[in-house]
């Protein structure tokens, strides 16, 4: 299997984003409540539900594109969908990083960078 590295990277991103999206859907009120406190002193304080919905959509699309990319890599010689999944994953992580930096949650931002490294590796491998 010559596509093991991109498949494993896409699997990591799929699990990360689909689980996170599922958690947001399952406990929407709890997430909104916690995030309102997290962003209470920021420019995002009044935009929490909209920002959370935007992140939810980005995460779901990222996860679905990554899963579709895995299927594509198993069944075709093309990797276009996988590449777009990796790109969208990077953009989603940048949005999340922006939010953590705005909230001055530097530990949270550092954690997002840990996810960004494999995401950018997937982009590089698939390009």
User: What spatial form do the alpha-carbon principal axes imply?
Assistant: elongated
First-residue to last-residue Cα separation = 18 Å
Unreliable segments of 5+ consecutive residues? none
Q: Whole-number average pLDDT?
A: 96
List keywords for this structure.
mainly alpha; 5 helices; 127 residues
Describe it:
Helix 1 (4-26) runs antiparallel to helix 3 (48-75) and helix 1 (4-26) packs across helix 4 (80-102). It contains 5 helices and no strands. The chain has 127 residues and is mainly α. The model has no long low-confidence stretch (mean pLDDT 96). The radius of gyration is 15 Å and the shape is elongated.
Please provide a brief summary of the model.
By secondary structure, this protein is mainly alpha-helical.
Describe the secondary-structure layout.
Layout: H1 4-26, H2 28-38, H3 48-75, H4 80-102, H5 106-126
Helix pairs in contact: 1-3, 1-4, 1-5, 3-4, 4-5
């Amino acid at each position: 299997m010559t596509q093991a590295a991109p498949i494993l990277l896409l699997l990591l991103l799929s699990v990360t984003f689909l689980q996170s999206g599922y958690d947001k859907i399952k406990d929407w009120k709890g997430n909104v409540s916690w995030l309102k406190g997290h962003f209470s002193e920021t420019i995002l304080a009044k935009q929490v539900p909209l920002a959370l919905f935007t992140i939810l959509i980005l995460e779901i699309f990222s996860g679905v594109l990554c899963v579709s990319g895995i299927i594509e890599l198993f069944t075709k010689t093309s990797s276009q969908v996988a590449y777009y999944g990796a790109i969208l994953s990077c953009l989603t992580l940048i949005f999340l990083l922006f939010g953590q930096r705005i909230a001055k949650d530097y530990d949270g931002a550092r954690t997002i960078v840990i996810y960004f490294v494999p995401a950018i590796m997937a982009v590089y491998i698939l390009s």
